[in-house]
Design a protein that fits this description.
CATH topology of the largest domain: Beta-Lactamase
Strand content: 5-15%
Number of strands: 8
């Protein structure tokens, strides 16, 4: 990534979105302007710097700007807290160590963190600033069996969202998830500017995904700390979650993500069904691994269970077949229902 180009694009896009009226500049509404948003000299005046000095900043020469000047620029451009921090991170040219606690944790997640994950009774995950999912509890592995695709305990959430066609079926809120992901990577790229793996990830996504390129050029910055996730699991159908994100202060760059479910909701019931099946399957096959080890035959067994007693007992939605017979969601084709079931092994892992 070109650091000066990043700084320039960020300042230009923030300037372009701000109208004279929003900035408190008296300007006749009938007067035609040749540029969207504010002019450079208007930002300079609001920030109390010379037009030439601000023009140099917008060309990416920002590393020697004082904190006071950066505060003035942030105020003039009406930056929110995340954007302000992003501006300061972009301006910080001091070298950072490449081997952080986060790098070490990726190789061997602390035992205490594993125990924290295992103590949570809803899906929970740990991720780093590159959006690598590096740990999950049992429900988290069951929930994110699709993107993990049997790869063990790690996968990259951004690559799944932009480079895996199955993401469109798994995520009912795909556009929202993609926008939040790019905003998070923008913030991470300014803070961890010497992280070669992060730079490589962003370059790869820019090269391979038009959707990523379009979102990246917006230069929106933000960390989604709370929100919702609307998913469609291969085996049990639609699942609606809330989530909360917590920064792990003793592990630089790591966050804990906990999903929540409404008590008594269809999502809670379907997760109970999925969990019960996994426990039964593990016992019957005399092993203690997660559903990632399930074979195609095991999936057929689960399909039979879901198509038999479980939907009727547990209130899963039923559809109507072409001949009028009642069928379970596992037998509804994409033309008969908005719910698409993917014939994939029940592998494991976590994501936001």
């Amino acid at each position: 990534m070109d650091r000066q180009a990043e700084i320039s694009s960020f300042l230009r896009t923030r300037r372009a979105r701000l109208s004279p009226q929003q900035a408190g500049i008296a300007y006749p509404s009938s007067t035609r302007r040749r540029v969207p948003g504010l002019r450079r000299e208007e930002v300079a005046e609001l920030a109390g710097v010379s037009p030439d000095y601000y023009a140099r900043l917008e060309r990416g020469r920002i590393s020697h700007a004082s904190p006071e000047v950066l505060e003035s620029i942030a105020s003039a451009l009406r930056l929110d807290d995340d954007e302000r921090q992003h501006l300061f991170n972009l301006a910080d040219s001091a070298p950072r160590p490449t081997q952080t606690r986060s790098n070490l944790a990726e190789k061997n997640l602390r035992a205490d963190l594993r125990r924290v994950l295992d103590s949570i009774n809803t899906p929970a995950f740990i991720q780093n600033h590159r959006l690598d999912r590096i740990g999950a509890n049992r429900l988290g592995r069951l929930l994110y069996s699709l993107p993990a695709d049997g790869s063990g305990d790690t996968f990259n959430y951004a690559r799944f969202l932009f480079l895996d066609q199955r993401a469109a079926t798994f995520h009912r809120d795909l556009d929202q998830a993609r926008h939040a992901t790019v905003s998070s990577l923008h913030a991470a790229s300014a803070k961890a500017k010497n992280d070669r793996e992060l730079i490589g990830l962003i370059d790869e996504l820019n090269a391979r995904s038009e959707e990523f390129r379009n979102l990246w050029e917006l230069h929106d910055v933000g960390l989604c700390r709370i929100g919702s996730k609307l998913l469609t699991h291969t085996l049990v159908g639609e699942l609606d979650f809330g989530y909360e994100t917590f920064t792990l202060t003793d592990d630089d760059g790591l966050t804990l993500i906990i999903y929540t479910m409404q008590p008594g909701s269809p999502t809670e019931e379907r997760m109970r069904i999925l969990s019960s099946w996994e426990l039964t399957h593990s016992a019957s096959h005399n092993h203690h691994t997660s559903a990632a080890a399930a074979s195609d035959q095991s999936l057929r067994e689960l399909n039979g269970e879901l198509n038999g007693a479980l939907p009727q007992k547990c209130g899963l939605p039923l559809g109507t077949g072409t001949a009028g017979e009642t069928v379970s969601p596992m037998h509804i084709s994409p033309t008969e229902s908005d719910m698409t079931m993917l014939p994939l092994p029940c592998s494991c892992e976590d994501a936001l």
